[in-house]
Amino acid sequence: MLVKKAYKFRIYPTNEQKRQIAKTIGCSRFVFNHFLEKWNDTYKQTGKGLTYNACSAQLPQLKKELSWLKEVDSIAVQTSLRNLSDAFSRFFQKQNKAPRFKSKKHPVQSYTTKQINGNISIVDNKIKLPKLGFVRFAKSREVHGRIINVTIRRNPSGKYFISILVETDVQPLAKTESAIGIDLGITDFAIFSDGQKVDNHRFTANMEKKLKREQRKLSRRALHAKNNGIDLLDAKNYQKQKRNVARLYEKVMNQRADFLNKFSTAIIKNHDVICIEDLNTKGMLRNHKLAKSIADVSWSSFVTKLQYKADWYGKTLVKISRGFPSSQRCSTCGHHTGKKSLGVREWTCPACHMHHDRDVNASKNILAEGLRIVASA
């Protein structure tokens, strides 16, 4: 099966390449904002917006008026225009909010360029990019497939990364004739229907003490700059500390992503049918007492990874309805015992007298319901 797959690597551009990347990001942002303003003005005057073709036709004239737009990758500039058009399309389909102006103060800056006539290629540990030439990158694995486009990104930590989108053939994994139910939690990240529990590593919580200390230092430097009438963009000590804080958050993000990728892959390899509860994460985040813990475990990201990996490798992911009473039903006899407070971690069924671990019992019920859905499909 042909799928689109992204490879992410850290790149190490030279100082000249960094300047060219900054130029390209700036020009892409300018073109996006320029035509967004035109789009909004046209809508106010006529009740209708512009189209991609109408904006694209005006781009050559804009380049004549602003010669510095010719100094960067033309495909990247054109892609920013396509992104604007796609954003409006999604907005009219009620998939997202209206496009907003891009800011150079945004922590993450990036641009995307496409593969055309071999302008992007990988040679050993370097990647050839338009207007940049060969850029050294940390080639931690081979890139398989036809390159479609690449996105160059500068993180708040000052590090540069590249995402290479390819079209590649993925073969289904061997069948294991195994099914598993998974109950997601906070104390334990995942509880399997076979009784196994996977620890919640609490990546943010473990770094919290250090993060607080560095954040306080950042606040002091911001106050010092303000008292001395220095703009934060020009305050070198503030910007240096800002990068230090960003590096800590980036480390937490990388730890979490690494765990979720490896864990989801292991589940897909070892089971043919994976049954999981369809959690209302957005609604649960409104609970201020649990919001930080729920955000730290990244349930949504985990389920997303399970879904696309199941699609790729020929496995089945079954999402159980949010209203299913997985914690209220005895997995042995099916007796409904009613709602229980979060403090109740173990209980005994009054009908069959089976003693249950709350989470393991829930995962067994999720598995049974998932198998019922698969059988009736």
From N to C, what is the helix and strand string?
Answer: EHHHEEEEEEEEEHHEHHHEEEH
Biggest β-sheet strands, sense, barrel: 7 strands, antiparallel
The rough form would be described as: globular
Regions with pLDDT < 50 over 5+ consecutive residues? Answer: none
Beta content comes to 15-25%
Structure description:
45% of the residues lie in helices and 21% in strands. The chain is built from 9 helices and 14 strands. The chain has helices at 15-46, 52-65, 74-92, 203-227, 236-270, 281-284, 291-297, 299-313, 358-376; strands at 2-12, 109-114, 121-123, 126-129, 133-137, 146-154, 160-169, 179-184, 188-192, 197-199, 273-277, 316-320, 346-348, 355-357. Strands 2-6-7-1-5-4-3 form a 7-stranded antiparallel sheet. Strand 9 and strand 10 (197-199) form a beta hairpin. The longest helix is centred in the C-terminal third of the chain and has 35 residues, at 236-270. The mean pLDDT is 91.
What key attributes describe this structure?
single chain, 377 residues, 5-stranded mixed sheet, 14 strands
Blueprint of the fold:
Elements (H helix, E strand, L loop, with lengths): L1 E11 L2 H32 L5 H14 L8 H19 L16 E6 L6 E3 L2 E4 L3 E5 L8 E9 L5 E10 L9 E6 L3 E5 L4 E3 L3 H25 L8 H35 L2 E5 L3 H4 L6 H7 L1 H15 L2 E5 L25 E3 L6 E3 H19 L1
Parallel strand pairs: 8-11, 11-12
Antiparallel strand pairs: 1-5, 1-7, 2-6, 3-4, 4-5, 6-7, 8-9, 9-10, 13-14
